[in-house]
Each structure stands twice: as C-alpha cells, then as structure tokens.
Automatic annotation (TrEMBL):
Residues 38-254 form the Dienelactone hydrolase domain. It comes from Trichoderma semiorbis. This is Dienelactone hydrolase domain-containing protein. It holds the Pfam family AASDHPPT_N. It comes from the Eukaryota. PANTHER family: DIENELACTONE HYDROLASE DOMAIN-CONTAINING PROTEIN-RELATED (PTHR47668:SF1), DIENELACTONE HYDROLASE FAMILY PROTEIN (AFU_ORTHOLOGUE AFUA_6G01940) (PTHR47668). One of its GO terms (molecular function) is holo-[acyl-carrier-protein] synthase activity. Residues 304-388 form the 4'-phosphopantetheinyl transferase N-terminal domain.
Amino acid sequence: MSTMPASHGHSAACCNIPPIVSKGYQPKGSYEEVGGYKTYVTGPADATKAIVVIYDIFGYFDQTVQGADILAYGDDHHKYKVFMPDWFRGKPCPIEYYPPDTPEKQEALGKFFGEFPPPKIAGYVPDYVEGVKAHSPAVSKLALLGYCWGGKVVALTVKAPTNAFAAGASAHPAMVDPADAEGLTIPFALLASGDETPEDVKKFEENLKVPHHVETFADQIHGWMAARSDLENERVKAEYERGYKTLLEFFGKHRFKAEAISLHLLTSHDKPAMAHPNVFLWALDTRSLWPEASNTKDLPKYAQRALALLSPEEQAAVLKYYFVKDAKLSLASALLKRLAISRYTRVPFRSATAVRDARTKPVFLLPSGEEPLLFNVTHQHGVVVLFGAYKPPVGVAIGTDIVCPGERRDRDVKHIQTQGWPSFIGMHSEVLSPLEVSRMRGLPFPLHQPQKLLDYFYANWCLREAYVKMTGEALLAPWLHDLEMRYFAPPGEAPPEGADKSLEVWFKGEKLTDVDVKLDWALGNEYMISTVVRRGEKGERLDVPEPQSLDLEETLASAEALLEELGE
C-alpha cells in the first residue's frame, strides 16, 4: 500500500493504515457517566489505583476496549480500575476518512482534528480526574495511557502544572516530539511501532531524565495496540499481548511497585482473572514509617490508623516492645497477616486472626479445620516479608527468610580482618553442614575482599533459614548438619565452580528433587530474600513472584476496604 504524506500534524502511519475491525469481543466492563462523559469503566470495584486511557481517534473499537480489560484484569498482583472517556461524545473519526486519498477526505480529516486538537482535550483532563474521584472515592493513585492521537494528549497532560498522574505512557503515539520529554517529572513509557520516526523516538528517550521504558515494536504497524490490531494474525496477537504486558510491568514497577505480571488475552468467554495471585511475596519497609514516634509509647498517637486494624491482643503485643523499631515490625507483621487472610479467604477482617500451631508457627484455620492459606513471615532490619499461597496443591509447604547484609557487614568484616575467614566460618559451623563449611573456607576470593566472601555466607544463611522455616522446625533442628546447599551464590552471580552449575539442595546425602528454591535481591539490592517451596504430592510447583514492595498508604486502604466490604 502506498504511504501518503502526513497531514494536519499527525503521523503518516495514523493517516494511512486502515483500522482493523475485530468482531465478537464481549466487554468485561460497562459504560457509565464519569465527569460528564460517557466512559467505559472496567476493573474491580474496590480498586484503589486507576488508569485513565485516552483512546485513538476511532473511539471505542473492540481491540481498544479489550486492551482496557487486559489492563484491569491482566496483572495478578494489583487491582486497577480503568476509565476510558468518550471525548468525541459519540462522534469519533469515521473509518471512511482513511486512507485520506482524496481532497474531500483530507478536508474532512482536517476539520475533525480542528475540532479535537490534543491541547484542547488535555485541558479537559484535570476536571475529568475530579469526576473519577467522585465516581470512585477509593481510588487514590492514577496513571495515564494514550494511543496514537491520545498519546499526544498524554504528553501534554503530564507536563502541565495541573498534572495529577504519577506515571504516563503512550502506545504508537502520533506527533512524537522530543521536546515533550523535556522536563517530565514522572516515570514515562513509550511503545513505538515500526511506523514512528526512529530518530524522533531516539531523541525522545535521550531527553527523558526520569525512570522510563522506551521500546520499538519494529514489525508492528501504527495502531497495533488499539483499533488497527488484527488479532486474527498470530504475530500481531503476540505483540499486542506483549505490549500490554510491558505496560503492566512498567506501571507495576514505577507506579504501583508490581514485580511480576501474569497476563493472558481475554476472549469472549473468559472470566476476569483473579484480582490477586494465588501466590504472593510481600515486603513492607517499616524504617521510615511513623517518624514522629521516637518511642513505642508514641505509636498509639502516630500509628493510630494502623493499630486500629489490629485486635486488642495484637495491639498489646506490639506495645510491649521496648524499642520502637521492634514494635513497628510487630505491627507490620500482624497487619500483613490479617490483610492476607481476609483478602484471600474472604473472612471478615476482624476474624482474620492467625493462631499458633503445635510448632508455634502462625497459621489460619477455618472452623472446619481447613487451612486454605499457607503463609510464612520473616523480618530483619526494619523490613517484614510475608510469603503466602492460597489453596495450594496438597502437600505444598513454604518458607521464606530475609537477610540484610549491610546491617552486620561492618562487624563481620572486622572479625575477618582480626581473626581470619576460617575463624568466622568456624564460629557458625554448628548450624552448617560440613560440606558448606569446607566450601566457604575454600572460596577462591582474596581476603582483602571480605565483602565478597560475606555475600556467599549471607546467601547460604538465607537459603538454609528459609528451608528450615518451610519444614516448621527451628534452627535447633537435629538434622541441620544433614542439610546441604550446593553451588550457592549471591543473587545474580554464577558459582565459582562454573556457570553451568546451579543451586542444589541435598539432604542426608541425597539430592532433593521436590523442592524449589529462589534467592533474590530486594529493596534496591539492600536485602536478600529467599523462598523455598516443597512441591505438591503430584509434583505441582508454585509460580513464586519477585518480592513486591508494599506502600503503607495502599496497604491501609486495602485493609480498610476489606473491613468495610466484609464487615467486622
């Protein structure tokens, strides 16, 4: 097909590629009035985060509506409500104008863009945001996404003094202007097609001084994520899906702190995915929380909102701690356990109380005795981690541990410098296997790099502790010498034995094949977090996500929403 010159300030691709009409898609949301505009609204009713979508000039096409549904239900870690307003008030650009290959079509197209220029629509967005807040008071944070013409609206909106969005993104944007990237203060993503001018895209990225993701889907046409997406073409369908996954990963990382995304294309017979995954790994950093509380006795004043969500017994347990840092860890631990129990089992928030089993491990049991939610908690140096699995296969067991190398590195380095590395390892040999002791003593790293040696020790400790916690035992378990972690290394590093070696777990001289172990850096590589999963009786695995950093405000809002929804 011949490509005509761009006209009226929009991209040539936008002008010359006829839209692909998809048939048969059944929307998951509904059309409602929001802020004075007919709006396609989709997503969980209790979502506290929202994405406002600016469609392309063709309005509500099936592919665009389907994209909104994917944004709403495609992230297994977060609940998003999506709002797509009808800026054209029922009069989108007619398909017949494309391609604009006659003077009459060009004149009609020019009139359309003259009626709906991006700066004009961008000026309407702040009032629309107020409409979103009135429609969904629980929504506290917003992101903005635009396609084609809508991408230009996004670029203008997020640079305005009235900007209310914490992240922005544009897919196959029209009128890419590198100057639009200058001065941006929020994370921004740009997904270009092969039809955008590469030099403009490159300069746009170079001008971004904020966290960003810029990527070109080189074999896709302008519009592949919206009206022009031919979902009957397997390659287009795959890139359409990858584009939305990329957006969700970006919003998660830079907007809502998501770490791992599970995405599938919704078909007409699909039900929305669960608002939350079956497996979760949460981390809440308490170090900067409630800074006014210099003593534990100050928490009832400054952490009143969080304490109010706990039972009287849990509140008393928090306030018994002498050091406020320990009290904050106790508060966060109790809050996360109660939140997870209520969220997944749907029991009233006040009834979501963990109890101790025979090994003093926290568990939650229904009146029937069923344990629908497995969870394990760990904490160190101000950070609480909760690892959980809802209705896992029979036989699954889980454990987790967290280590903060920086908390103890200085004193450990001092010990090594004064008494030697073998002495340091020997000091811990009672809870390590003989093979681990021998391997660490023989690590091929010079003693003038004690930090390198210590990272191996911390990694081994974190892995072992998570395994022990998976069993429900304690570090005094009689079989500790029989547990061996072989070829362990700090996260992201290959063991000195070679890149072809990977972590193995051995017990009493036999390699375990029914245990899956992960070790990740978290919170800016300040902590190591390990997870251990014993597979189900039929060998079923769990898909363990990366550690997800939680925001206190969002955590409290989620807990309060559950309290209101499910009652006392």
